[in-house]
Amino acid sequence: MGFALSGCSMMEPMVAEAPNLPGIYAQETTPGPRRDLGGWWRRFHDPVLERLVEQARRQNLSIAQASARLAAGRSQAEAAPSLFLPTVGGSGQAVTGTSREQIEDPLRRPLMAGFDTSWDAGLFGLAASTNKVAAASLAIVGDELDAVRITVTAEVAAAYISLRSIQRQRELTVALVAAQERRAQFARSRSRTGMAASGEEADSAASLDEARAELARLEARATAMRQQIAMLLGSSAPDAALFTPGSQPISRDTPMAGRPAELLRARPDVRAAEQRVLKAAAEIGIAKADLYPRLRLGGTIGIGGPSIASPFGIAGGPSIQIPLFDYGRRAAALHARRALLDEALAAYRQNVLTAYQEASVTLANWRAAREGALRLGATVEAEQRGERRIRVLRREGLAEATRLAESDASLLLTRRRLAVAKEMEALALVALYKALGAAAAVPEQREAGG
User: Fold this and answer.
1) What is the CATH number for 170?
2) 229-257: pLDDT as tens digits
3) Residues of the domain holding 157
4) What span, in angstroms and rounded, lies between the C-alpha atoms of 368 and 424?
5) Is residue 314 part of a domain?
6) How many C-beta atoms lie closer than 10 Å to residue 381's C-beta?
7) Is residue 413 part of a domain?
8) Quick one: which of 303, 268, 318, 290 has its CA closest to 1?
9) Does pTM surpass 0.85?
10) Which of 29, 251, 365, 372 has the fewest other C-beta atoms within 10 Å?
11) Measured between alpha carbons, how far is residue 44 from residues 18, 160, 199, 251, 371 in Å?
12) CA angle 154, 53, 427 (to 5 degrees)
């Protein structure tokens, strides 16, 4: 009877169906190659960045918390099957009184001790549903760990990219301050001789003050970025390498966006949403099993009963719990679980659509940022050619020193804009890889490596 009942599963087959996604992203003309899920930050070819990312993945406290939750979830999942294994315990009882009458009731003997055992059969799919809930819960915390790793990796890369951009802007701003000082000096000289145009001296002084103020702002931003990186590395002291200016991280490779359908396995938030659907379906199985009787087998072996003639004895038998008066409450719980399954299905579909929207938008942003950086780079080259012509004219006495100072200041401003454009391109690339679900371990690797 027990084997027959245990095969009557109350679980319903459940597949989390994703919304239809296009075969390619809107910005692509042909399906892209399969993307690289890990190590995308190495495309910037920056050893300091690579070291900081690896250090953060080992030391970041948010990752440590998520790893601890995964360890706890793994322990709970491993313990789930034991809920439906026989349990054994010891018990003892001593009875005394003032009466001298001999006690013949086996349950009131002066001393009773033994071992008790019980077994919940887990019929009607209760055991299988409980195990599926535990497995889904473990998968969810594993996916959440991957999501934290993706976020931390992207934040470290973004902060480092911004820091290098700020340091480059600072170098250019220091040169700009010097150029604006020369321009202001020429304006004062021209003003004393009466050759300056109206407002020329005031304009040059205002430009100099603005450059000095921008220099102070860049210093503050650099300090903030260094401290943010230190926090992401689980430390309060910034890395010494961050105080030395370095080249801006730039990736000339075209990112491999892949196919939109790959988001279903690459994005940990989508995988977690799918597991929540499976968990909700398994919880329906538990709620259904609660509508049926529950069989428990129990027994005791020990001294003191139940036989009067022997000091040892064995007692045992089945017990059945039948939901009668609380059937309505259990039925209501089943309806609630079905509603929660509908919610989980809707949340899964919404996660899929959000993932596609984020990947599409970040891909478009990256393309626009790269185009903007290329155009600004061409502008810098054109201004450099113009600046060289002015220097030649100045050496020949055909151009004023004021014009050369203005050309220098204009070129430095454009080069600073280019530094910002390169930063935006690199940050857009980081955002794209984050939206694609890169930097997370594939599920098979996570199961093997923990």
Assistant:
1) 1.20.1600.10
2) 999 999 999 999 999 999 999 988 888 77
3) 2-86+124-306+332-449
4) 10
5) no
6) 10
7) yes
8) 318
9) no
10) 29
11) 34, 11, 46, 5, 18
12) 30
